[in-house]
């Protein structure tokens, strides 16, 4: 076990170093400059009043409250002489470091130690994560890391209070993981009333601390900027891309990207809740499926969004994770190499379509493996601790879920 952890730790450290070298030597996409503009605006208006400001020359400020405090901290470091362009890509790069270790801990409880090492190293060396964390520098990977941590703490570590805090942190950095929060509450409910109460207490306390001042001060602007944000109107990925290729009317695509996108979000929430109720012990895999399904059904297009399914697919299976990371990694590399990260060439969109298909196949096999487990089967007991219930049953070949 110590050697296995050491291998993943070294791989995660090398991955972090690789990402930071890229961040220090490449300018990054437009988001790097936009985040710098947001940081300067935050020093003027603060992380609460920022939501009601027009911010000329910048897009709508659509980030949850904790992101504002993070940007203020990074801006303070930049005033000491550090490069903001490098700093803004460090949170995602550091999140990948911890995500590699986290995936290893999740998988080793549900599969062989060798598969756990492969999955942890896979996250560290994932082409799509290296490209987005090291070059793009958004906050998606940070939110995903906290979401997986919440599932691990709740299902494997039996720490519902800490799990609730992690869940609140995930949606406070980027609102995307809100789709997994109902599944986390359902899994906590399945653990019994004390577990649910402690999870809700951790979630509620952190949520009130971070979101409370904004909800009290500028609730309407927060709703418009963050809660109702539907993403860009580009037609580069997934359902919108296929609808465009098939020649569906613009009114249909406009509806999909407008009010209709909430229907797809509800499908993701429902799928996560259903799986969490049936297999609460497989909560990390459920979170992986829910986030991957959100990307699969997303009506918004962005290269950084491709990270939503990266770590989660490694939780579902090594080959699923490897196939997804490589195909969409190529999409990200080609996309960032073009003239603009939001203007993909036809070859990039074809590769992206292949990545969408790979993701769909990975989610299908992941759901099948989750449902193939016994409802009462816990994760493997860590070495050196006595088992709390019956021993594990056999699992399908190649599975990394119990």
Automatic annotation (TrEMBL):
Residues 391-402 have a biased composition (Polar residues). Keywords: Membrane, Transmembrane, Transmembrane helix. The keyword Repeat does not apply. The chain crosses the membrane at residues 80-104, 116-135, 161-188, 195-216, 262-279, 285-306, 313-336, 348-367. The keyword Oxidoreductase does not apply. Signal peptide: none annotated. It comes from the Bacteria. This is Dolichyl-phosphate-mannose-protein mannosyltransferase. It comes from Streptomyces brevispora.
């Amino acid at each position: 076990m110590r050697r296995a952890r050491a291998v993943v730790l070294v791989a995660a450290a090398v991955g972090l170093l690789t990402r930071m070298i890229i961040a220090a030597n490449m300018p990054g996409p437009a988001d790097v400059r936009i985040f710098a503009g947001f940081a300067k605006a935050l020093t003027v208006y603060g992380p609460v009043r920022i939501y009601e400001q027009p911010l000329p020359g910048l897009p709508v400020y659509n980030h949850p409250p904790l992101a504002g405090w993070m940007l203020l901290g990074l801006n303070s470091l930049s005033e000491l002489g550090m490069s903001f362009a490098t700093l803004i890509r460090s949170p995602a790069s550091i999140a990948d470091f911890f995500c590699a270790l986290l995936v290893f801990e999740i998988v080793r409880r549900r599969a062989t130690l060798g598969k756990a090492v492969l999955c942890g190293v896979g996250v560290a060396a994932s082409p799509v994560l290296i490209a987005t964390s090291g070059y793009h520098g958004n906050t998606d990977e940070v939110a995903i890391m906290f979401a997986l941590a919440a599932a691990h703490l709740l299902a494997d570590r039996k720490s519902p209070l800490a799990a609730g805090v992690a869940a609140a942190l995930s949606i406070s950095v980027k609102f995307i993981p809100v789709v997994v929060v109902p599944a986390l509450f359902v899994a906590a409910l399945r653990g019994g009333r004390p577990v649910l109460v402690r999870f809700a207490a951790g979630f509620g306390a952190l949520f009130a601390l971070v979101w409370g001042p904004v909800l009290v001060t500028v609730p309407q602007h927060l709703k418009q900027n963050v809660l109702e944000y539907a993403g860009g109107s580009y037609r580069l990925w997934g359902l919108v891309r296929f609808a465009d290729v098939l020649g569906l009317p613009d009114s249909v695509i406009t509806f999909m990207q407008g009010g209709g996108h909430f229907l797809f979000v509800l499908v993701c929430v429902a799928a996560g809740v259903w799986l969490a109720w049936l297999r609460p012990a497989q909560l990390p895999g459920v979170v992986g499926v829910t986030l991957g399904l959100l990307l699969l059904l997303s009506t918004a297009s962005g290269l950084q969004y491709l990270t939503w399914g990266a770590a989660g697919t490694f939780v579902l299976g090594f080959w699923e994770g490897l196939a997804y990371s490589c195909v969409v990694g190529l999409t990200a590399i080609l996309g960032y190499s073009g003239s603009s990260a939001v203007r993909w060439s036809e070859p990039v969109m074809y590769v992206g379509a292949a990545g969408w298909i790979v993701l769909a196949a990975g989610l299908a096999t992941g759901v099948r493996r989750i449902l193939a487990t016994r409802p009462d089967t816990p994760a493997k007991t860590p070495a050196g601790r006595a088992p709390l219930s019956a021993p594990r049953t056999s699992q399908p070949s190649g599975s990394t879920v119990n």
